[in-house]
Amino acid sequence: MDLEGTPAVPGYHMPAEWEPHSQCWIGWPERPDNWRDAAVHAQRVFTRVASAISKFEPVTVCASAAQWSNARCKLPQNIRVVEMSMNDSWFRDSGPTFVVSKTRSTAGSLEQKVAGIDWNFNSWGGIDDGCYKDWSLDLLVARKILAIERLPRFAHSIILEGGSIHVDGEGTCLTTEECLLNKNRNPHLTKDQIENELKAYLGVKTVIWLPHGLFGDDDTNGHVDNMCCFVKPGVVLLSWTDDEADPQYQRSIEALSVLSNSKDANGRQFQIIKLHVPGPLFMTDEEAAGVFEDGEGKPRLPGTRLAASYVNFYIANGGIVTPQFGDEKWDDEAVRVLSLAFPDHEVVRIKDAREIVLGGGNIHCITQQQPACP
């Protein structure tokens, strides 16, 4: 069912990721021009991610008709596998952004309704700058998920991906100018106009604009979910490096300055927790050679710096599912920081998360939480 108007008018807002989920949605990778060796390595790691999350909340994995049997065979039986066409498996960006509305019933109890925003999508930049030239199937992913769950849909013509926004559930949104103000998204809209759309659709009052995303995150033009996220209202994790020679250093310093001089929607100063990036890490000759180049997808070139970040984790119901990159020093440090930041959650490591970042994102990018509806 399509709903008219904007979500904020009837009282919908995007909840924080740490609020209760009914399930998590994940796509199944298969593109040979993005996932090396016909996605066999990526599928192994996606299975680990789905399995880890399923210990905390239900998981639904969507796979194409050609891959359904393969996915069903590899995934644990407690994970639902449904058939769905897609151009690639980044459900944070092609899936719906869920919003909730709390209303008082006639009996006086508080009831929560769930709906979804179906943003427009152009493969992170369109024909000239995007990651692949045909995204027609991805345009239907959000609508299909909402139809499966029989949830209302708010359609929007603005081009926006879920990885470009983070919210605290109390009126504050984080994003980056590098992404949302990029001319390959919505060149006809000003910064103020885009901010007004975020407020109208996410139900937020304050938008914090960081100048840039993570260095090397060229596929998404600097999504915020690789750079900075909320731990709780008033507290954020920021991708960091102590190496002043690293191009990431200046980006982190700029973000630190913005956050230090900003307040959230409730007037709080931000507590900023630094989460050091791994590496730097680079695509090897062997990894690049495993990607099938057919002119449809963005080339994966040896020596490319990988957009690897520990901020790109998933908050499950009682769990933190976090990437690990084989960098012993910073892998362990990330788990230490996350354990302190989320003392009531179990931190679960996903080894070989490098296989996901080779495709252009990580755990947060491949997942989409659906809020609980009591």
From TrEMBL:
Source organism, top-level taxon: Eukaryota
Signal peptide: none
Hydrolase as UniProt keyword: yes
GO MF annotation, one: protein-arginine deiminase activity
Gene Ontology annotations of biological process type: putrescine biosynthetic process
Keyword terms of this UniProt record: Hydrolase
InterPro entries named in the record: Agmatine_deiminase, Peptidyl-Arg-deiminase_porph
PANTHER family: AGMATINE DEIMINASE (PTHR31377:SF2), AGMATINE DEIMINASE-RELATED (PTHR31377)
Name this polypeptide is given: EMB1873 protein
Organism from which the protein derives: Escallonia rubra
Source organism phylogeny: Eukaryota, Viridiplantae, Streptophyta, Embryophyta, Tracheophyta
